[in-house]
Sequence to fold (972 residues):
Amino acid sequence: MKRRVRAYVAAFEGADPYLVGAVGVLLFIGSFVVWGAGSYSRLASTSPLGQHYVVAKHLFMIGVGTVALLVLQQADYRLLRRRWLNWGLLAVAYGLVALTLRGDREINRWITVFGFSVQPVEVAKLLLVAFLAERLGGQSGRRPPDVRRLAAALGLGVLPLAVMLVLQPNYGNILVLAGVTLVALFVAETPLRWLGPMVAVPAVGMAVAFRVVDKLHIRLQDWLDGLRHGDYTYQVTQSLIGLGAGGWRGLGVGQSHNKFAFLPESHTDFAFSVLGEEWGLFGTLPVILMLVIIAWRGYGIAARAVEPFGRILAAGVTTALTIYGIANIGMVTGLLPVIGVPLPFVSYGGTAMVAALASVGILLSVDRVAKAHELWKARWDRGGAA
Amino acid sequence: MRREHDVHFRSGVLRGVVSLLLAVLVVNLFIMTVARHAEYKGQALENRQARFHVRAPRGRILDRHGTPVADNMFVADVTVAARSLGEDGPDSTLVRLMTWFDLPRQETLDRLAQQKERGRRRLVLVPNASLAQVTAVEERVRQLPGVRVDTQARRRYLHGSLVAHITGYVGEVGRAELDTAAGYRIGDDIGKLGVEAAFEDVLRGRAGLKLEEVNASGRIVGRRAVWMREPRAGSDVRLTISLPLQVALRELLGDRSACAVALSVPGGEVLAACSLPAYDPNLLTGGISTDAWQQLANDPAKPFFNRIVQATYPPGSLYKPVTSLAALYHGLVGTETYLEPCTGGLLFGDRTFHCWRRTGHGEVNHLIAMAHSCDTYYYQLGLMLDIDQLAVAARAFGLGSGNAGIFTAEAAGNVPDRAWYDERFGRGRWTRGVLLNNAIGQGELLATPLQMVMLAARLAVSGRVPDPVFVADPAPVREAPPVLPFAEEHLAWVRGSLEAVVEWGTGKAAQVPDVVVAGKTGTSQNPHGEDHACFMCYAPADRPEVALAIILENAGHGGAEAAPLAGVWLAEYFARRGELGLGVVP
Fold:
């Protein structure tokens, strides 16, 4: 028992300290923000935990996510290369996403599992990355991916999810989906001349969607109005006021005024704004720096992966995280339209938090295998002595 | 190794793209927090602080002894923000509230619509909420967007309708008043009638202002105001009315349509004044429903009609002292002169003008004619007089012009003269016949009850009574009393004849034990119905200190109906004058 624990700890000791550290810093900062901003949420008013209810649930989800992270880090990600597992999990995940579409609300993203409200798309997104990795990088030796595999990746993987996300609707994840797909194709060493149409087709698709779907059109118009005339929507206006009023020094931890219902979703999608209001640049710059570190290390791990599958997997999940980060900060600061994505590791959010930590687990797993491989290769080069 | 290189190249591209995007965000953050900080800070302040108008407590209205007639009480209103009443779905805040409080649906909707029309941003949903209602709202305040309990001072008229026509009432400032009157905000109270309106500037005080920290729904979150300018309370206004005397007068009049005014002599301070029927001003302060308002406004008994200064009656025989003085002044008759005997009427042209006593008074001299109010004698005086001579005498007493000042719709009455008749009927198209009517206070002559009591008061002390006042404090500016043109001996004779009226004439019913009362009865003919019973008097006759006029609408003869009431009230007055500190001449 003791040995196993020691072995386990040893295995984790090899984990990328920059990546783990960056995630840790974000979790730390995020918990403070959620603690403050969540205290005024409607959930908090009816719970026995009172104003601490939201942060308690936040910490609990961090716990669940950390377990997922550790399990995935210890597991060999290459298990996902088995087609039955890979395809099977994706099929289940898509099924769950399809279930959300039954809802009759304006936005249908959640299903209830054992009393927990779950967003299946957060999981489906990771499994899609695995699927793309399997399709695009699964074949050994031959590259670039052949047309059949490419078609399967896009047709069976990307397209169904894209359709379901439009129906939900969930514009933030459509953006993530597009980004992840492009990056997967990019790191799968698809010839660069193919990438032109690959960028063009979704771009045209989105342009058409903006024209056709009213709601998208309105959001786009709101956004353009904001950028051009400073005429932002209420939520963005409040967010900007919070950030701007906080200044570079911030108002002080817990001093946010926006959290008193001035800024809707202040502990979830707009947590960054509250952070800026309370902590100033001392809060916001580290968050951006941590995102840079995560992207930097994530793509580094992808580059060092032992095979294309690991590389695409690592690059894909890194991309999902960074797109969330950039889109979130962009929307909170009025640079991007409001598409409702959380800030990874900072925003309150159940499934998104677990999925984000699971992504890190996958990255660490890819990294661990690569390091083991290098170690083994070094030994092999030295003559195979144990 | 080309492959390795390519992999690292592509990973580098991704790192670069991500870093570039994040760098854009950093630059933007610097711009927002450093370069535009001040601008956003201002907006944030605007966001979280709201200005609140703190109403000043309105000054009270007291009677002459300092007893409050109108004060303020704190009431709780359940109010709702106008903008949160947008949709009217079955689950809307409004419907839920109406169900809870069991509010009559149509009436509530009307009240809200009425307030919305006035431009209010907070609408009173439940005025004068009970403790149970307040608690119910406070408990569920988070589920009720825009709903709040507001406590505020509301005007309270402690004696209901007793002094209503003098105090007037306050109501919410209207749209038009907002444009013309400075410093009022939507929802403020403003004096609408009577003293409340005339002394608005005194009573109102100055509103305070406070800055409060608020949350997104406008609810105050700070424990105390960020900044506050204290309101300055309004000053009290002291009336000349004496509540005990007012109550006595009111009780005498019962449920008639009537008016009575009592005045101090020679001060000209109104001690008691009733106009009946009256309205309860308390009904009007918290916003009255349209229905209830219509009912009050359309009541045929006209409760809003302030008979004291707005109603004009022919003075009838109350006018006879004026006719006598005019005739004496011009030397047309003496105090002992006998004219043609009264046979119950006088033929003028082809028309007989009747005396009130159809059987006639027989031989009457001037004194008997006054004491028994013989119309035939006065018809003859009328024929001797010129219409302008009579009008000048009447105006000397203040008849024909409004003189109370504080009431907006004060009537002037009417004292017709040659010019008036020329204009009314055309030059040469009226006869001296009008003089017969004028001489007995009928025809086109009209006077308000206040003018009638002033006539009595000025007769009592040879005119040395300035225009009447209703308010003692703030001290009114008094103009010098008029100088009567009549000879003092003529005035003294008239006073003696008025004593005779009460001693052995038509006004015997007004006698008071131990006090000599002088008065004149009147029966004011009224084309619309039964005659009005009138009586005016002053007492004590030798050293007058109080004057009283009573008009009972459609009640018949003044001597029989009005004079007894005057006697009762005067008895009450003289019984309590010491205790009330009245009539003491320094």
